[in-house]
Amino acid sequence: xxxxxxxxxxxxxxxxxxxxxxxxxxxxxxxxxxxxxxxxxxxxxxxxxxxxxxxxxxxxxxxxxxxxxxxxxxxxxxxxxxxxxxxxxxxxxxxxxxxxxxxxxxxxxxxxxxxxxxxxxxxxxxxxxxxxxxxxxxxxxxxxxxxxxxxxxxxxxxxxxxxxxxxxxxxxxxxxxxxxxxxxxxxxxxxxxxxxxxxxxxxxxxxxxxxxxxxxxxxxxxxxxxxxxxxxxxxxxxxxxxxxxxxxxxxxxxxxxxxxxxxxxxxxxxxxxxxxxxxxxxxxxxxxxxxxxx
Length: 294
Known about the structure:
Layout: H1 15-26, E1 29-35, H2 40-47, E2 50-57, E3 68-70, H3 78-83, H4 91-98, H5 111-117, E4 131-135, H6 147-157, E5 162-165, H7 172-179, E6 186-187, H8 194-202, E7 206-210, H9 213-221, E8 225-228, E9 245-248, H10 271-274, H11 278-290
Parallel strand pairs: 1-2, 2-3, 4-5, 4-7, 5-6, 7-8, 8-9
Helix pairs in contact: 6-11, 8-9
């Protein structure tokens, strides 16, 4: 199934890349432009493009940029917030957004997951049920729960489950160091594509992770998820997008400290993560395994 005729990839750190992409976009005239980004720079781009309709989220200053503006619904997961821009051209989407009651709606789910289940994936033969996945990494250092916490959780679940560590190639070393302390565990960090993870997660019991990409893949696959949140908060809209999930967090006056987290804690304590104990995560994770609707 083809979802897009063309994809333009921008290297935001390269000004030449931005200029080339913008010039390429200027060479076309569009029926609709949907802009989920709310920055001034994105608005400036939209102003320079030719389109019958320009649709974005309502801000006090952007009335001259868009022909139609949508009030952002902060109660929705961010994926549905972005889809809500389609309300301006689809009554069907409007009804679905209004009737949203949680979880991943069937109309927005990834049919690709079902196709993956029909295949015999080479990784399947490495898995011994039941499988518990751990994704201890994150691009942002402050979004990572403590290594000691993951170690204790892995050791405890390792008594009853096959523990599999997943992550990007940058997180391979972290996962390898944890695997060394847990006999019979498996480290697949840096060895799986997104499609691989979808297959693996469809055949697992639980994922324990940070606020990271693995959490969203698990939501698409329907894998129960226990996510540890630190610098970010649920109000941003990036929580696990399913009902079979739980979030472990501490209420603190310094949260949130940024939309994406930081490489170093701004106040030097990293208490939002350090104050979450392994026992707290284990308790929530066990409840989720026993009752996925928890």
